[in-house]
Specification:
three-stranded parallel β-sheet; 122 residues; single chain; 3 strands; mainly alpha; 4 helices
């Protein structure tokens, strides 16, 4: 085998290795995360917070306790958008409302509990 043929085979093998490596990286970093779908039930989260707020408000005996309940509601309304923004970054997936997804697959992940935990954190 002459040196020119060896050089050509080496370049071809290196090019093939780079192409395969690039395709594998593209699959792992772009395609697979895009196929994963996170779903959240925002209605469930709202109903739970509404029930907590209503309970605190109905048991409130003073203006201070009522103000505390309203402060909790305000804090929830401020934390919700931030928590919703964090979910796609945390799971590395597309996040949709549960009601917008017709069925679940093995690539569907319910993130409602994770959203609730984010909203409980101070």
């Amino acid at each position: 085998m002459n040196a020119g043929l060896k050089s050509l085979l080496l370049h071809a093998a290196l090019s093939l290795l780079i192409a395969v490596g690039s395709l594998v990286a593209y699959d792992q970093l772009v395609i697979r995360p895009a196929l994963r779908i996170g779903v959240i039930d925002v209605g469930e989260v709202y109903r739970q917070k509404e029930a907590e707020f209503t309970l605190i408000l109905t048991k409130a005996a003073s203006d201070g306790e009522r103000d505390k309940a309203f402060a909790l509601a305000r804090a929830f309304s401020q934390r919700l958008p931030a928590a919703l923004d964090e979910l796609p970054r945390d799971c590395g997936c597309l996040v949709m409302l549960k009601s917008a997804v017709a069925g679940s697959t093995s690539r569907t992940v319910d993130l409602t509990a994770q959203l609730k935990r984010k909203l409980e954190a101070p």
